[in-house]
Amino acid sequence: MKDLWLLKHDASVAAGALPESVREAAGMQSWRAMEGPLTYIYAPTDSAFPNNAMPGTSWHRLQCLQMLDGASAGLVAPYHYVVETDVLAEHENDLNAWYTQEHLPGLASVTGTARAARYLDPAGFPRYYACYDLASLETLGSPAWLAVRGTAWSARVRPAFRNTRRTLFRRG
């Protein structure tokens, strides 16, 4: 499991401020939202680059909580689906158990999922990130994906989510 740096930025600013050749040399991955101007740039924490790059930007250090190879590990994954959320304090243990024991392993097992991971931004808002690298857009609406999302435990945990945002990205 690897911690990451994350930069959330307007796509037009991020693309112009950090050339693709620089991102690749630093081991960064860039993802552009399929709707809207948002770009997420991830960098390995062993890279000093984010600390010194792009003055005026705010990099978040994400602690890796769980990372799983998906049923389609090894396939090219041009899509990146991110669910960001906070949770009511009294439901935090249940949320973490649900993700660890049921939800992340279940979604990782769906054909089309190359990788599933969870991160914590201890100082950020929102605090929790679930990230899924997908080989196909059809994965999100597949019967297997929807079955994992439709469990009794899922129905119990979701009402405690706060500040939730779901974003589908494409490599960019």
N-to-C terminal Cα separation, in Å?
24 Å
Class from helix and strand fractions = alpha+beta
Would you report the number of β strands?
8
Oligomer: single chain
How large, in whole angstroms, is the Cα Rg? 16 Å
User: Strand-residue fraction?
Assistant: 35-45%
Briefly note the CATH topology name: Alpha-Beta Plaits
The main pleated sheet reads as: 8 strands, antiparallel, barrel
Shape: globular
CATH architecture: 2-Layer Sandwich
Strand order of the largest sheet: 1-3-2-8-5-7-6-4
What is the N-to-C order of secondary-structure elements (H for helix, E for strand)? EHHEEHEEHEEHHE
Mean pLDDT equals 88
Count of domain modules: 1
Low-pLDDT windows of residues: none
How many helices does DSSP assign?
6
Helix content: 25-40%
Q: Briefly, what CATH class?
A: Alpha Beta
Layout of helices and strands, plus pairs?
Layout: E1 4-10, H1 11-17, H2 20-25, E2 29-33, E3 38-44, H3 49-52, E4 59-69, E5 79-87, H4 92-108, E6 113-120, E7 128-134, H5 143-149, H6 152-157, E8 161-171
Antiparallel strand pairs: 1-3, 1-4, 2-3, 2-8, 4-6, 5-7, 5-8, 6-7
Helix pairs in contact: 4-5
Structural summary, described in words:
By secondary structure, this protein is of the alpha+beta class. The protein has helices spanning 11-17, 20-25, 49-52, 92-108, 143-149, 152-157; strands at 4-10, 29-33, 38-44, 59-69, 79-87, 113-120, 128-134, 161-171. It is built from six helices and eight strands. It has an eight-stranded antiparallel β-barrel with strand order 1-3-2-8-5-7-6-4. Helix 4 (92-108) runs antiparallel to helix 5 (143-149). The model has no long low-confidence stretch (mean pLDDT 88).
